[in-house]
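Notes from the 1:1 (GR / supervisor)

We went over the backlog. Supervisor wanted to see one worked example end to end before approving the batch request, so GR pasted a single chain during the call. The sequence is below; no edits were made to it. Supervisor asked that the structure be written out right there so they could see what the output format looks like.
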Amino acid sequence: MIPDLIYKLTRALKKPVQTECEVVYLMVEIRKLMDRREAERRKAVPEEDHRKLRPEFPVLKLFCDWAVHINIEWNREAEPLMREFDGAVESVKAGNGIPLSFLEFLSLSHLREQFARFLKLNELPTRLVEEGHAWDRFLDLYSAVVSDCPITYTNRQMPFKLISTLTLTKDMPREESYAFVRSLLGDEPHSVWMNWRIELTDGSIENWPFYN
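Structure output shown during the call:
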């Protein structure tokens, strides 16, 4: 099964990703390969140690799941992402601005890093994550795929202070709603290609777009 998945992914990754259907196919096959690798890891350790195993690529796993579900409120891998956004919103509201370390979550550079490691580990083509224009095109298509699929927080055991829903959309928000993001990027012209839509627990909406 793993050789078949490697073969399919190699074929898919050798050519440019140009459609939303290709993005979905790619994420589904990657998720299958992840599951197979996870099964191998479990076989290599005693059964009593299975609970100690953690996903090797939690961010990539989350974004694979996000591409094929109408929501992922059940997914434990979503908690770190929600927590980072919750802390960043709190920082901005306190007048401290957005933490610079948070930009990797805003721009999905952490996804790119795990994606690259996964491809290299499985000896798959890496053009998608190494070439800037290929990665930008992939994210543009990916954000369109998940634009109607929110992450809704329902787990009361780990309450967030401010955020109730997080959605990656293709919306173009009003400029005043993302002035702090523009201030970080400077005055050069940028194009918006994805937008984080954040619904707060008080019912208000914030838009945090990312520019390439």
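Supervisor's comment: Residues 2-211 form one domain.
Batch request approved.
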